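Re: beginner question about structure tokens

> Can someone show what the tokenized structure looks like for a real chain? I only ever see the sequence side.

Sure, here's an example I had lying around. Input first:
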Amino acid sequence: MINDLWYKNAVIYCLSVETFMDANGDGVGDFQGLMRRLDYLSGLGVTAIWLMPFQTSPGRDDGYDVSDYYNVDPRYGSLGDFVEFTHGAKQRGIRVLIDLVINHTSKDHPWFEDARSDPHSRYREWYVWSDKKPANADQGMVFPGVQKTTWTYDEKAKGYYFHRFYDHQPDLNTSNPEVQAEILKIMGFWIQLGVSGFRMDAAPFIIATKGAEVTKPVEQFDMLRKFREFLQWRMGDSIVLAEANILPKDNFEYFGDDGDRMQMMFNFQVNQTLFYALATADTRPLKKAMEATKPRPATAQWGLFLRNHDELDLGRLTDKQRDAVLAAFGPEKGMQLYDRGIRRRLAPMLGGDRRRIELAYSLLFSLPGTPVIRYGDEIGMGDDLCLPERNCTRTPMQWSMEPEGGFTKSAKPVSPVIKDGPYGFEHINVAVQRRDPNSLLNWTERMIRMRKEAPEIGWGDFSAVDTGDAGLLALRYDWRGNSVLILHNLHPHPTEVTFDPDVGELGRLLIDIADGASSEADDKGRHTVMLDAYGYRWYRVGGLDYLLRRKEI
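And the corresponding structure tokens:
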């Protein structure tokens, strides 16, 4: 069962092909360049790669406007290059997940071109049309402040088409059985080429009813089961990781009561309250979010993240909580986006403070679920706020002090490498940090190894241990007769904490597996630990003979 549910104790690394490494010298990353960096990813310890879109696209939205689902964009290479990449990843024990962007296509997709050209086209009903502009056309935009409407008039079609995102991304009519059959064909195609699963972009919009008459979309959850069943038949251990920023009450609708829908979802509730905790040293909302999202089927798993390629969405926080996070991490208007979030990378958000960066990643690796890390965050890469919208966090990977950060031989990369300031490639790069045993890169590698050796976090049940201080978070995980206990101090000052692990006689000895500062209980079974400012402790409960004590079931 452990092998079948590989995602329960994985470490996923998110990257964009175009920003990782350019082997062709044209200023754009490609699969040959990514192939050459697989040894780096293997050495880092990641067990899966999530690739952002790389299919043929006009590139108006970083590949999220697909014009051919069955090919690789020529800028990145060929299908042959992709297969060589997936084969190379498999040789190193790394699985590959790819973005599944099926809520919409590019307006340049042949399907849409055909649909708008002929009202009797077989593709006409693959999209969503209206003769008149619906009254609610100025509502429901994904990108408020940038996007003006969700319905746009097409001269050739003589009608309005629906687009939840930009006007160059017409929505597919996903309720149409022919569209659903095509989606299965797309998944089957990439599975045959070595993919282990998909990150489903905008999952709630995919399954929602669409049309001019729809004022309150209804989710068609059976669609998720159809996707799941197809994948299980094609490859038993393939998965779907859904992007669904939903309320906890709807979690089982996506996972399925019997775990027969999505295997994984991103936990946006925990993500947003985690940043509130980092901003205020108040972990109470975070613990509530963890408890609210705790119930899930045995086969389901949360994907946990700090930052990704989008803005940090704060829409689920209260106004007061959102204001606190904005004040701490995005106080300037140019750091904010879409009236709901922050468009920055983690390191500059935390002021480049190594203690706080370590604290944030220690939290990520120790929260209930599977950690998903963003390329470049392992070296503390920064952002370029001069670039528009979300492009500021999508700059090329910084490999060395060579020109253009070792990303390309081209003097003009399509996306500019960060050159100036403390986050420029001459200061922040892999080559320098690899040679420094105390670097963030080497710390992250050790943390990944430690996380993989603590399957209790991915598989076990968690409980919050009382610390009597909202700025201190203590979590205990129990699985197969073993326990780990992890402490975090979110205060900017050293703090002493006294607690009872509440695991019986084994709890009298806590072995620190991070730095060796172990703890023995007093006569009452309590431990007293001094935590540095933004400090953390990872404890094995009962000793390092835990593998001998692990139960088989």
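Each token stands for a local structural state, so reading them left to right follows the chain. The two ends are 11 Å apart (CA to CA).
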